[in-house]
Amino acid sequence: MARASVAVSTILAIVTLIITALASTLILYGWSMELPTILPEGSREYAKLIITGYTTSSSVLTLYVKNVGGSSAVIDKVYLEGPKDVFYELEIALIQGTGVGGELWGGDVWRVDASSLTLRKARDGKVLYDVFTSRDPSTWNDSYVDYNNDWSHVYYDPDGLKLLSRSAGGWAVRGLISQGKIIDLGDLPIVVEVDLQKTYYNVPDGDAAASPFAACLYLSSNKNSNPYYAKPWFAAKLYPRSFPYRPEAQLVTRDSNGIVTYKTLYTWFSSPNSQPRGIFLLVFNETNRVYYYFWRNTRSGSPYAAGSWSSPGLTQVFSSSPLYVYLTIDNRVTASSRKVHVRYLQVYRGTSIVVNGLKPGWTVQLCDENDQLIKEVLASSNSVEIDLLDYVVEHGMPFKGYIKVVTCDMEEVRSHGGVTIAPGETKPVTLSIKGVPHGVYTLKVVAKDGALTAMPVKI
Fold first, then answer.
1. Would the pLDDT of 10 be above 70?
2. Are 208 and 276 in contact (CB under 8 A)?
3. Which helix (H) or strand (E) holds 415?
4. Which CATH class name applies to 127-348?
5. What residues does each domain of the chain span?
6. How large is the average pLDDT for residues 176-183?
7. What is the mean pLDDT of the chain?
8. At 34, is the pLDDT very low, low, confident or very high (cuts 50, 70, 90)?
9. pLDDT over threshold 90, residue 185
10. pLDDT at 25 over 70
11. Which residues contact 142 (CB under 8 A, 6 or more apart)?
């Protein structure tokens, strides 16, 4: 009996081994055919998200999201879920600001307050903008410049400043001088734009272009009832020339020794009743030099002349800064029918707008009043500078629109449809929680491929 029992036990053991082997084979086959392969952490071929931390303020929730998977994740939805079916879909935080009246100026400096999603002006780029529809005694003294005048007049209307002058022998000068020194070439950059026109006013059979009077903008550190003697000075002029009679658009300096140097930008050849007009855009962004853009007759299209200019007189003007501004009609005729028209004068602090208080990866946008994107800059530090020189030359100032700061890379969002986080990368995602009541919520972050992570947060 013992020998028979051993035989049966041996047979049972063999059968058990065969059954176990078959079962193991089937299990392994099932795993290989139906279940995903288990790979080490960080090498998976799909995204996996975890929230490593978060911060909140009155208006902002900032998440720190890490991708521990093996492929990039594009986050396109973030939710807050609370009790009693409370649900909020959060959006990328936007920060927006505009100047007074929706005007932005070159030289503006703006600062972001990320905690409250506000953008405030830290420095106004505008120094002076006058269209001369009414007298402004806080800015101008229009009785000071009155040299050798037998009869003269300054007046304002909806079309701008008009200056008339009649000489009592020699030159008569009539115009305005700023109450203070409003331009400082020791603190560059500075931009000046002025629109000057020589017009006829009851000129019998005359020609305003050829008539011997000048339309002038002077910059000088000195006061004089005739700015020609307030040397050294820099000027933009529509100036009469003789033999043949013609007006020229000029940049002019007179140094401390009385030496005059000038550069002609354009010449009008005389014709009856002509009224030459010149628009000068003057950019001072380099010591002892001025960059100029000049339009004849209308400020549209490309400038007729553009370039840079320097002279010994201009060097002296720089070294004597800050400067008064004069606007004048310089006249050497006895007729009272000569008139200078100034449509506007602008002085501002450069051709760029600066935005501070940023974080790397944020986008700064400049949009016009029709919500069209004009400029876009991706921040690589806590500050960006938006260069507007091309816009200024084409359109002038002020810029009508607003600044928008988006707390992500908008080019990335446009390209991929959300915020992209590469494998192994941790990225901050800043979201607006304006209007979300205080409380405890379940935060859910969802990627386009379905990857999801969740955690409780306190708002």
1. no
2. yes
3. helix 410-416
4. mainly beta
5. 49-93+411-458, 94-125+352-406, 127-348
6. 97
7. 87
8. very low
9. yes
10. no
11. 135, 154, 175, 176
- Name the residue among 130, 226, 104, 144 with its Cα closest to residue 182: 130
Place of tokens 């978060």: 54
Identify the top-confidence range among 114-128, 263-277, 371-385: 371-385
Question: Which residue matches tokens 């529809």?
Answer: 133
CB 239 within 8 A of CB 212: no
Strand partners, 172: 331
Q: Rounded to 5 degrees, what are φ and ψ at 393?
A: -65, -40
Select from 457, 427, 453 the least CA-distant residue to 49: 453
The closest alpha carbon to 383, from 112, 118, 126, 114, belongs to: 112
State the first-to-last Cα distance of the chain, in angstroms, to the nearest integer: 81
**137-161 pLDDT per residue, tens:** 999 999 899 999 888 889 998 999 9
Fold topology of 49-93+411-458: Immunoglobulin-like (2.60.40)
Query: Taking the CB of residue 249, how many other CB atoms lie within 10 A of it?
Result: 27
Sequence-distant (6+) residues with CB within 8 A of 174 are 145, 146, 147, 149, 152, 153, 154, 163, 164, 165, 328, 329, 331
**pLDDT-wise least confident of 33-37, 207-211, 236-240, 281-285:** 33-37
CB 284 within 8 A of CB 304: no
Q: Cα–Cα distance between 366 and 318 in angstroms, integer?
A: 33
319: left (phi over 0), alpha (psi -120 to 50) or beta: alpha
Report the alpha-carbon distance of residue 268 to residue 252 in Å, rounded: 17
**Which residue type sits at 262?**
Y
Measured distance CA(345)–CA(223) in Å, rounded: 20
Find the radius of gyration of the CA atoms of the chain. Answer: 37
**Which candidate, 409, 56, 42, 347, places its Cα nearest to that of 191?**
347
Largest CA distance in the chain: 154
